Amino acid sequence: MARLMERLRRRVLGPLFDRLGYDLVPATPDWAHRPVSPREVDRLLGSAAARLAQDIDAAGISCRHDLRGLVEEFWELIPRAPVRQRRGGSGFNGALQLFVLMRALEPDFVIESGVFRGLTTWIIRQARPEAELFCRDPDLSRLQYRDAQAHYCTGDWSTADWSGLDPARTVAFFDDHVAQGRRVVEAHARGLTRLVFDDDVAAHRIHAHGGPAHPTIAMLGALRDDPEPIRWQRNGRVFEQPGIDPVARKAARLIARTHAFDDLHQATGYSPARLTYVQLHPEGGG
């Protein structure tokens, strides 16, 4: 059946979509393609582990695990992922970074804002089997993986009462295409200090990303003092981020430390990741 569908795609559907200006590609995840010779696998894993070690240190995270061992564990784990996606959502590099971050941070509670097909939920569960997961997304109809123990809700995470969670044992992961500056302010108001963001892109690169959650973490510093708006064009539309944004200014003051992880493309050859770790000042600080 798979061969028949591939033949149909190449000979009939592919050319048809090409004439319409679209690409029709199989939904094969990038991790389905991998080196198999022991030497090249060792180089890939070693290179990824070295870069992740630098990032974990630069982020100020204390990790009691052997990073090479974590990368090897992930390498064996990811082919069993129940979610298959080629475009949208996390690829190999982003999933690896999230897996390592969750192991390093060791949260007992994880708030996930933006679930999409469920791959990141599955990754978090593999990294923290005993953690309590809270999954928020306005549209849960696209799930390919639903965690049996997680709490799902279509309401925005900011509308929930999180007072029952210990902030020191909680990590919030945002991949929801909502302004990252706003998420920082919301998280701080709820006492959270450890945040992970996907799709954190700089202003001069934001044009290349669909639905970016501006202002992004990378944009906050410039928006604090520069009145010049940030404008970009994508698919014929012009977007604008106002300068000296009050929310961006407040968010910038609340951040104690931020580190954008290496995209890992040079280390692994897979599609670049865009994960950023953010440490906030404790409640009352900043």
What's the topology here?
Layout lengths: L1 H18 L18 H21 L8 H11 L14 H14 L3 E5 L5 H9 L4 E5 L14 E3 L16 E5 L5 H10 L4 E4 L22 H6 L4 E5 L2 E5 L4 H9 E6 L4 H4 L7 E5 L6
Parallel strand pairs: 1-2, 1-4, 2-3, 4-5
Antiparallel strand pairs: 5-9, 6-7, 8-9
Structural summary, described in words:
The protein is an alpha/beta fold and 286 residues long. The protein folds into 2 domains: 1-28, no CATH class; 34-280, Vaccinia Virus protein VP39 (Rossmann fold, 3-Layer(aba) Sandwich), CATH 3.40.50. The chain contains 9 helices and 9 strands. A 7-stranded mixed beta sheet has the order 3-2-1-4-5-9-8, with helices on both faces. Strand 4 (170-174), helix 6 (180-189) and strand 5 form a beta-alpha-beta unit. The radius of gyration is 20 Å and the shape is globular.
Summarize this structure briefly:
With 286 residues, the chain is an alpha/beta fold.
Gyration radius from CA atoms, angstroms: 20 Å
Topology as a string of helices (H) and strands (E)? HHHHEHEEEHEHEEHEHE
Strand order of the largest sheet: 3-2-1-4-5-9-8
Stretches where pLDDT falls below 50 for ≥5 residues? Answer: none
Quote the distance from N terminus to C terminus.
Answer: 59 Å
Strand content range: 15-25%
| DSSP helical segment count | 9
CATH homology superfamily name of the largest domain? Vaccinia Virus protein VP39
Q: What fold name goes in the CATH topology slot of the largest domain?
A: Rossmann fold
> What count of domains describes the coordinates?
2
Query: What's the story with the biggest beta sheet?
Result: 7 strands, mixed
Sheet/helix structural class: alpha/beta
